[in-house]
Design goal:
The structure is a single chain. By secondary structure, the chain is an alpha+beta fold. It has one domain. Helices cover 31% and strands 35% of the residues. The chain contains six helices and 13 strands. A 13-stranded antiparallel sheet has the order 1-13-12-11-10-9-8-7-6-5-4-3-2. A hairpin with a 6-residue loop joins strand 8 (127-136) and strand 9 (143-151). Helix 1 packs across helix 6.
């Protein structure tokens, strides 16, 4: 088994502001409704940019959301008429000789006081990817769970992989609320596992507070071969150790830089001002309405 670790410094996120923002976002979406053509409309009448109901009932299990794809070239008036008659559903099921399969997200559960669950299925470059998301207590998020499975149809077991991850946000806040001199959390608040026929990997994130108020996050990756392929995997990892270690370090540093940049640009609004800012971001993310 090979193990790699790298520690980065990131700006601290205020828990109160994060939970207030999450609650405001959930409340805005919970009060939304279906508008003309499957648009999702907020309570103030503005449509959410880039989000459209393609199938089912808004905020009900089984509802499918996505972008309505452009009409296929050569579809002609018949295609336009079908789209006008059947709305977004016709675009999902397709018309003519070949079906249209845009990327979409299916809502599995919408219970703002308990959990929100969604999954997506994307087929791209011959690979089929299925991703799932579960958020516990969305108004004051306590945990985020992710799942991912991919395969290439007809490609055999070498073209299959799966992964799961979870971030225990309650444990995360407890870890960063410790004294800087206290030992790190015994169990990483965020972790994930990936499995392939040849190998399996585990990634963990362990935060701790720094003296200057920032967070220091240790990113650790362990990789090992599986079954009878462990000796082969050990040889591969011996030669790949340098690139893997460098890749982990560069990925961690890049993610930390993006996080710090985002927090620097973040305006710590509260109350109605925060709610209005989130509504503007949902309906006009580019700020074009203000021009």
């Amino acid at each position: 088994m090979a193990r790699f670790a790298h520690t980065v410094a990131v700006a601290a996120l205020d828990r109160g502001w994060f939970e207030e923002a999450a609650g405001a976002l959930v409340d805005l979406l919970d009060a939304s409704r279906e508008g003309p053509g499957g648009t999702v409309v907020l309570a103030d009448g503005r449509a959410v940019e880039g989000l459209r109901l393609l199938k089912g009932r808004h905020l009900r299990p089984g509802a499918r959301y996505g972008e309505v794809p452009a009409a296929r070239e050569g579809a002609g008036k018949a295609g336009t008429a079908a789209e006008a008659a059947d709305g977004p559903a016709a675009l999902v099921s397709g018309a003519g000789d070949s079906p249209v399969t845009p990327s979409s997200v299916v809502l599995r559960a919408w219970r703002p006081s308990h959990s929100v669950e969604a999954e997506s299925l994307v087929v791209e470059d011959g690979m089929s990817l299925k991703a799932g998301l579960r958020l516990s207590e969305p108004r004051r998020p306590r945990a985020v769970e992710l799942s991912l499975a991919g395969h290439q149809p007809g490609g055999g077991s070498l073209y299959r992989f799966s992964g799961r991850g979870k971030a225990d946000l309650a444990a995360w806040w407890a870890a960063v609320d410790r004294l800087p001199t206290a030992p790190p959390a015994a169990r990483p608040p965020a972790s994930g596992r990936a499995v392939h026929r040849l190998a399996k990997a585990r990634l963990t994130l362990t935060p701790r507070p720094a003296e200057d108020g920032s967070w220091r996050i240790t990113v650790a990756l362990s990789v090992r071969g599986r079954w009878l392929l462990r000796p082969v995997g050990a040889v591969v990892l011996f030669f790949a150790r340098g690139p893997l270690e460098r890749g982990l370090r560069e990925a961690a540093e890049s993610a930390a830089a993006e996080w710090n940049r985002a927090l620097t640009e973040l305006t710590p609004l509260h109350g109605e001002a925060l709610r209005a800012e989130i509504a503007d971001a949902l309906t006009d993310p580019d700020g074009s309405a203000a021009l």
